[in-house]
Description:
Number of domains: 3
CATH topology of the largest domain: D-Maltodextrin-Binding Protein, domain 2
Bound molecules: ligand ISJ
Distance between the termini: 72 Å
CATH class of the largest domain: Alpha Beta
Radius of gyration: 23 Å
CATH superfamily of the largest domain: Periplasmic binding protein-like II
Number of strands: 11
Shape: elongated
CATH architecture of the largest domain: 3-Layer(aba) Sandwich
Amino acid sequence: MRSLEESRKRIDEIDKELVRLFEERMNTVVDVAKYKKENNIDVLNKNREAEVVEKAINNLKDKKYAEEVADFFNHLMDISKNFQRKAIAKKMVSNLKKSIFIDITETASKAGYSMMINPLAKKVCEIYFGDKTKKIEFNSYDDIMSGLIDESLDYVLLAVDNAMDGHIAELYDLLEKYEDIYIKDKFVTDKDGIKLEDIHGLNTENYNKFIILGKYKRFVKDSNKIDLIVRIDNEPKSLGHLVKYFSNYNININKIDSREADSSVKDFSVFINFDGSLEDKNILKMLSGLEGDVHYLRLVGAYRG
Ligand SMILES: C=C(O[C@@H]1C=C(C(=O)O)C=C[C@H]1O)C(=O)O
């Protein structure tokens, strides 16, 4: 048997080699993350993870370590996913500084709409965009999102189910899948499709809700509400820490809602709606700090509300 000193020396050598391989693996993982970002693919791939674990077990000479090697790779892949999320989200806030603020109805040459949730969508789309914009009807979310991604559409108008708007629900799941799509406008209409400008004090449950989605960093001028999704550690202090960010910058939170993330990841998603405009440097500063401090940050939208 080796002496304690000899064993420790050997462990140091092995660790050195492990760190070299870890670094190489992480560098490769970032390439995967970039590919995923460009192709709008989720960071998590459960099938691939199962494959990685299976290969690791097969590669063992001594199968008595099967459980441990599975554990090791599951941890490693959690680290890898968190890093991927950070790597692809990192540039988001600095990119936002290049945003332009416009009247989107003046820059839309093609807009899509769907009558799946509310048949009034067609009429609302006509009123919202006017005659200059070509309007195209879609019958599936995938088609409508593809239209935005391949830029055959400038914007899309979707009706929002009242139930859907209540929580971080399907809509936000859908948006999380598409890194580059944002909510550009959110509004309520009466039964004739006429936009209600002042909804203060109205029970909007009885009205029709719509959103405008678009790609890239063109946002409506003078927006005053921002939607955000962040992922933070599932630990006692993290939510308080998150909320403190907003109070430190004197930003008012209107709504905060959380949901457990995938059980293989030890963090959870928080949806936040707060007052502010992307034209405001204070907001960008807060977002930039927050981005560096959370596992993942996704701007969902900025609009007038
Ligand atoms: C690197 C990838 O992304 C994630 C991380 C993995 C890893 O670290 O091996 C495996 C699957 C994905 O959940 C990938 O998809 O290959």
